[in-house]
Amino acid sequence: MALRATLWALCLITMAVFATWQLRGGHTGIDADILSLIGQENAAPNGPQTDIATVRHLLANDGQQAIFMLSHSDRDTLETAATDFAGRIAALDGTQTITLPRHNDNRFADLMALYGPHANSLLSPSDREKLANGDAETLYRRAIQNLYSPATTLSSQSLKQDPFALLPAFLSDLGAKLGTGNDVIARDGQFYLPVMASLSPDLRSSGNDQKWVADANTALQSVTDATPGLSVAKTGQIFFAVAEATRAQSDVQRIAIIATIGILVMIGLVFYSPIPLFGALLVVGSGLLAGLAAVVAIFPAIHAIALVFGATMIGISVDYALHYLVLCSAAGSPTDRLHKIRPGLSLGLLTSVIGFGALSLSPTQLLSQIAVYSIAGLIAAYCSVLFLLPLIPARDVRPSSPIRKLHDGLQAILGKTFAPIRVRLIASAAIIITLALAAFLIPGNNDIRQFGHGNDALISDAGKIADILGLGGSPVFIRIDGDDPQNRLETGKAVRHALTPLIADNRLGGMIGLSDLIPSITRQTENRGLVTTGLYDRFGAALSNQLPVNITAPDMDAGYLVPDEDAAKTLPEITLLHSGGSDIIRLRNATDIDAIRLALADIQNVTLINPPTAISDQFAAYRLWAWIALGSALGVAAILAVLRYGFRTGIFVFAAPAGAILFAVLGGYVFGIDQSFFTTMALFLVFAIGADYVLFLAESRNSPHDDDTRLAVLLSLISSVLAFGLLATSSVPLVRDIGSVIAIGLIGAWFLAFWMTAPTETNHNTQTQNQRGQE
Predict the structure, then answer these.
(1) Of 710, 716, 697, 686, residue with least CA distance to 649
(2) For the segment 674-698, what is each residue's pLDDT rounded down to a tens digit?
(3) Cα–Cα distance between 444 and 616 in angstroms, integer?
(4) What is the pTM (predicted TM-score) of this model?
(5) 23, 14, 12, 691: which is closest to 287 by C-alpha?
(6) How far apart (Å, rounded) are the C-alpha atoms in residues 338 and 387?
(7) Where in the sequence is the signal peptide annotated (predicted)?
(8) Strand, helix or coil at 371?
(9) Residue of 166, 52, 287 whose CA lies nearest to 534
(10) What CA–CA distance (Å, rounded) separates 26 from 300?
(11) Which residues contact 498 (CB under 8 A, 6 or more apart)?
(12) 256-260-265 Cα angle (round to 5)
């Protein structure tokens, strides 16, 4: 026994060192963004794009940007402060680039290098309309004015490529479509200047996001202190994610500390000795440690919600310790006492592993992390009971213990509720039928906006920035599907044509799609024809006489501009407007969704996507899957129970955790807790713990240590409700709902475990107490 204990202790030490190295060394990050939980099952990069995969792609791109909006009444002061601040942000590890007004002037040369050779194929909508309407002379006169303008920047190369000055009009129109993201904005006597930071893609996964945000806030405070009258606002996914992570970590520490103290006090009131406290801490600590080590070994980052659930492992793993510790010393040697509880302990572990195993099949990494954490933690707690607790001197439960007296009182009350076998069979059937009906009939609410806590200051800043940049309204976008890139560009052109009236009516603030940056080959061919017949054929000779270079009509067989990798190097926006095998059209300030949907009704291969709706629909699909998985786990549990205890008792044993789940569902509904995917997944915990209760009681029924087991189950209930009930105090709504549902379900699990395994003679409990008194 000493050898096994030594080996197991070495394993725990190894796990502690490994977990510390992973977390302290930054090899495993902590993520708190709920949006990072979705869409991870869509792993095929070039497969058909689903709505949720597209949303995730766009959110990932947007998540690499942070926007700071500086404002001041004096423009020069504002620009000076912004330049200073931009330099501080650019110096931070994790910042890739900084965008400031006039700081990207060299981009014009890059754009000319990309677009210049295709100038005759690129027309602004206004120029195209003039050529189509036979008003080419206006464009010819504009070219002459541009030629003799004192501010002209024409070169011989640009004159050869674009003698009629068509490209500046195209770029000006493109700039308007891209929006005002890189300009100083004046409004109501105040100047606003956005400083946009592009972040390293691995900033969050590396665990350095909190440091970046802290350093950025320090830089922001420094420039604010040095510039009286300067106002600042900031937005970006990184700020929201770090705020949620900080709040979740605070909740974890608070819950873990309070739950641990509460459980220690409870054990102290039972044994009046510190030795059982040490044993319980040993088992709980090993469970927490093994769970954490398993998660950091498998996943590159831990979600903060998984950490919160990890804290609740205190309430589960302590059950195993209590099951052993409450056995009286007169029950025999440590090996004898271990032998008495081992069947129930093993069955409880097996059932929990089955339940959490189903959880590990979840399509989201969060639930997979919780499953891995729980399975590893419970196995470690089980091993600690087998290998370490027998080395601890036994201490008996004190008869004067207030919790013992509470236990006796509750047993007397429960004894009055025991029912005949026929009634229990009817109740079991009613539980199974009602649970199935509840799963179908109780409506779910998976609105993503209800899960997070939100940060009022960040939400206010985001609203201000969106208003100033004209990015308000619904965050919808359009996805264009199709195998042929040119067909998608044609579809993009049709979408712009359909939505242009809505932009004119201010029902849509603007839009930008790939076809705006790179027109389709069909459109480029049409433009060449219009330019040739409208300009070169009519005014080519006249213009050529006034130029120092020879000009020639467009070559209709020349190559076309296409959205390939070379184009994307000059225009990074191409990457942002493409996802998998689909093109994306981003909409700004969309205030009339119905009108947009109606305008797109007749265009094929076009999908209007609302990210919050897409995410909520995905969670609704997950919830359906969760109920199917939970039903499967219950089915397996029913088979195991019948095989172990026979049909009638097996049905009772199965009905106890099933009834606990029903109790949690109905209780949550009565208390107004939304039935979301996450609260549905919380039912797995109710199932696992409820199964432990009824299995412990079923295995010890009619045995000499039956009453000890009943006391252990009561202590387990107190510790579990303490741990999970504390989740109900979390500031994160998602965690709060999960904790409430579990706490409600466990109370039902405790009652049903006693009720379903009650002896047929109602005076059995009294006899047991009398026997204990004689001892």
Answers:
(1) 697
(2) 888 888 878 888 888 888 888 888 8
(3) 11
(4) 0.73
(5) 12
(6) 10
(7) none
(8) helix
(9) 166
(10) 10
(11) 599, 600, 603
(12) 155
